[in-house]
Design goal:
Strand content: 15-25%
Number of helices: 13
CATH topology of the largest domain: Rossmann fold
Structural class: alpha/beta
Shape: globular
CATH architecture of the largest domain: 3-Layer(aba) Sandwich
Helix content: 40-55%
Strand order of the largest sheet: 2-3-1-4-5-6
Largest sheet: 6 strands, mixed
């Protein structure tokens, strides 16, 4: 009972009390809105990643994974990806090892597709895994961004893409420069017949012979995991080439190259995918690849400001030095983030539609342009031809 008022009656609210109640109500609404915004900001999606983290392609896969991880960490540290509706999306990276086994890659990809929290998948860097899962991306409608595979693709679907240069565009650039520089008339090729990307390199070497005026005098195959290449190298020696193209993933390529040098070959060597620039290759061959040639997707020795800062952050964060594959993993995540912005959310189909015609520059300055259909390759990749000068160092040709 209020003092001075009859029992059963309540004091009429004063203007001050009405105002206090209104503010309390408004505060409640504001608090509720803040909770809604916070919930929206805390929306999280998974980015799957399939890489060969063990086996002959591990040097590529580890760099692709670490580049992707750095991108995810930096995006989340900045508050997430804007969803176009006033909220933010946080990314989680789920990287798994395919162990250089195409069946394992397929199994992992199908598992990712059944997880509704997974928005898209990255990798693998090697074509052994990327080629078999590419058609599945269209079947299960899970966007796929390749971060290093360069093998030819016979049939694309609108859910599959690659941010990196590929054999068909990069190897011709390298051959044109090095054939002229070294005056190559006779080229020998030794390649891994079990890796689609390496077969692609070898095929380009054959196809470019007529245009550049050289002859492929030896075309020798081996299989991933082989230890002795003396029969193939004996054939190459008898063919008397001016240069030798070694098409093998880092683990196998180190063994091939080491045996080439041990047998006394003095001819310049060429390889793809930036392999000779990788310190792992330098260490594995004890520096015998000095003065040999490869190509990169980024000029890591003369980087722009953005790339220089990335390399500093990456090399501080991870034990293995950055290579082009590190940038591919980073750019793949940034491409998905851009697609989320353009799609206005995290619907797989809308993200795929955004990817199909995306045209933008990543924070590293990499130009990514997709027009799919008809194909998912990056239409604007950069290619830098290099000659190795030391452990992880080179001169652009």
């Amino acid at each position: 009972m209020h003092e001075g008022f009859p029992a059963g009656l309540r004091r009429a609210p004063t203007r001050r009390r009405v105002l206090q109640q209104s503010l309390a109500g408004a505060g409640g609404l504001a608090f509720a809105s803040a909770l809604i915004r916070r919930a929206r900001a805390d929306t999280a999606v998974k980015i799957g990643q399939i890489e060969a983290l063990t086996g002959p392609s591990a040097a590529y896969g580890i760099r692709g994974r670490d580049g992707a991880l750095l991108a995810v960490e930096e995006i989340n540290a900045a508050g997430g990806v804007a969803d176009g509706k006033g909220g933010k999306v946080r990314l989680e990276l789920a990287a798994e090892d395919m162990a250089n086994d195409p069946k394992q890659a397929v199994t992992i990809f199908r598992q990712l597709a059944t997880d509704n929290a997974v928005l898209a998948s990255i990798g693998p860097t090697n074509s052994v895994g990327f080629v078999p899962i590419l058609p599945i991306a269209g079947q299960v409608k899970l966007p796929l961004i390749g971060d290093g595979s360069g093998a030819p693709i016979k049939e694309w679907n609108p859910y599959a893409y690659r941010v990196n240069p590929i054999s068909a565009s990069a190897v011709p650039v390298m051959l044109r420069k090095i054939v002229a520089k070294e005056k190559i008339k006779r080229l020998a090729v030794i390649y891994d017949q079990t890796q689609d990307g390496q077969v692609g390199d070898a095929t380009v070497c054959k196809n470019m012979a007529g245009e550049l005026g050289y002859e492929v005098v030896a075309f020798e195959a081996f299989r991933a995991g082989d230890q002795d290449f003396s029969p193939q190298l004996a054939t190459i020696r008898s063919a008397k080439p001016d240069a030798i193209y070694v098409a093998g993933a880092t683990g196998d390529g180190v063994r091939v190259t080491s045996q080439v040098k041990e047998m006394g070959f003095k001819q310049p060597l060429l390889t793809g995918y930036g392999s000779f620039q990788d310190p792992v290759y330098w260490d594995g061959t004890k520096g015998q690849i000095k003065s040999d040639y490869t190509w990169l997707g980024q000029d890591l020795s003369s980087p722009n400001a953005q790339l220089k800062q990335f390399l500093e952050r990456y090399n501080k964060r991870f034990p293995q030095e950055a290579t082009s594959f590190s940038t591919y993993g980073y750019d793949a995540v940034q491409t998905i983030a851009e697609a989320i912005k353009r799609a206005g959310g995290v619907d797989r189909e809308k993200v795929q539609q955004a990817l199909s015609s995306i045209d933008f520059a990543t924070p590293l300055g990499t130009k990514v342009t997709f027009k799919n259909p008809p194909a998912g390759d990056n239409l604007t990749p950069s290619v830098v031809v290099i000659q190795v000068t030391g452990r992880g160092t080179y001169a652009a040709v």
